[in-house]
């Protein structure tokens, strides 16, 4: 059993080594607040382009609207021009982000085509220049961290580039590095190579390394910590629509039994809370913005296919509340969701069919 449940990033000490990753299009303020209330001690904002940070506009104002309950919070930044990247990092630090996180891991084609994200793993001189300039532009008291994949591809040259950038990150004084166990070319296909994470942590020694990739259950979180020796993990896709994963991992790491899956009433309570937070943050847009979350939340419902279809059709507050009233009614006798053997999600198994 993993006993050392402390994680340190710069001056911040966390009682639990599991944090919410930056998720493009997802990890906005409402999602981060829900994750914290479920047990995550630290969360990162969705990745933002440096040019958006340094240019006035609605997106910049929304990004800088930090909540008093959303700390410490990491601001993840992406770009391709070292000077512009550093300027944006300095502005994010001044705006109140507690940690500045540099994205060298995004595998999306349009990002790679603009020489951002994971592309920079194939261009060590520019990548290292960005690290140097960001660390120099951000006050020393504010941690700077790095997110990277294990390389552009599986070639020996790509691996050399990875370790060249990693060594530079340590020598420049970055506070932590998160490594995803897939290559950029893999995107999200195939397994994440946890043995590579173990190798990185062994070479890093006392430096802080977080692992990422294939964390879709509390058990997988414990396994990554035990098998790789990383100091902490960042949960990404595995916590979309499943904030309970944080509390479940806390229980396992404390040596307690795995809690039962959330029942329908508890799911409904949290989804309604998430929707209310989204309304406060985004107003009328919340109906459309929350649709993708509803789809993911439905995976834990014993009648998931029907619930998913209902959420897909939602775009207004009235429609959202109608779905919650119908499919998350705590007064109904819902089937039990089983992690190992999910119930039949056909029409016949649903009490409202």
What does this structure look like?
There is one protein chain. The chain is an alpha/beta fold. It has two domains: 7-253, TIM Barrel, CATH 3.20.20.70; 264-349, no CATH class. The chain contains 15 helices and eleven strands. It has helices at 29-38, 50-54, 58-63, 82-95, 109-112, 124-137, 156-171, 194-204, 218-228, 244-253, 264-282, 286-289, 291-297, 304-312, 317-327, and strands at 7-9, 12-14, 18-20, 43-44, 48-49, 73-78, 99-104, 144-149, 176-180, 209-212, 232-235. Strands 3, 4, 5, 6, 7, 8, 9, 10 and 11 form a nine-stranded parallel β-sheet that branches. Strands 1-2 form a two-stranded antiparallel ribbon. A hairpin with a 2-residue loop joins strand 1 and strand 2. Helix 1 runs antiparallel to helix 11 and helix 9 crosses helix 10 (244-253). The longest helix is centred in the last third of the chain and has 19 residues, at 264-282. It starts with 6 loop residues before the first strand and ends in a 26-residue tail after the last helix. Residues 1-5 and 342-353 have low confidence and may be disordered.
